[in-house]
Amino acid sequence: MSMRARQMAAGEFKAKCLAVLDEVAASKRAVVITKRGRPVAKVVPLSEPGPVPRRGLIIRQGDLVSPVGETWDVER
Questions:
Q1: Residues 43, 24: Cα–Cα separation, whole Å
Q2: Closest alpha carbon to 39 in 75, 71, 4
Q3: Percentage of the chain with pLDDT > 90?
Q4: How many other C-beta atoms can be found within 10 angstroms of the C-beta atom of residue 34?
Q5: C-alpha distances out from residue 75 to 43, 69, 72, Å
Q6: 39 contacts: CB under 8 Å, gap ≥ 6
Q7: Element holding 42 (H helix, E strand)
Q8: Contact status, residue 43 vs residue 30, Cβ threshold 8 Å
Q9: SS3 string of 4-41?
Q10: What is the DSSP letter of 51?
């Protein structure tokens, strides 16, 4: 069964973005965003919902404000 992606103008997507995201998640049907009739982006449902990895973000746990116990000389 093939379901064609719905098309939507960028201006309409801008106005209805959150509702469109909910629709894509519920219907599992993609939405193609167009500008001047030409496709520029596609909103697709995730195959497995869950946490999305953030590239380039370093997550550190623990105490970040206490002294590290290391001495150093700023003039060196």
A1: 7
A2: 4
A3: 53
A4: 16
A5: 54, 19, 9
A6: 7, 32, 33
A7: strand 38-43
A8: yes
A9: CCEEEEHHHHHHHHHHHHHHHHHHCCCEEEEECCEEEE
A10: P
CB 46 within 8 A of CB 58: no
| Residue 54, amino acid | R
- Residue showing tokens 């002294």: 67
Give the model's pLDDT for residue 1: 41
Residue whose tokens read 């370093």: 58
Joined together, the tokens standing for residue 67 give: 């002294």
Give the chain's largest Cα–Cα span. Answer: 70
- The tokens describing 43, both together, are 């909103």
pLDDT for residue 6: 92
Report the pLDDT value the prediction gives residue 59, as an integer from 0 to 100.
64
For residues 8 and 35, what is the distance between their CA atoms, to the nearest angstrom? 9
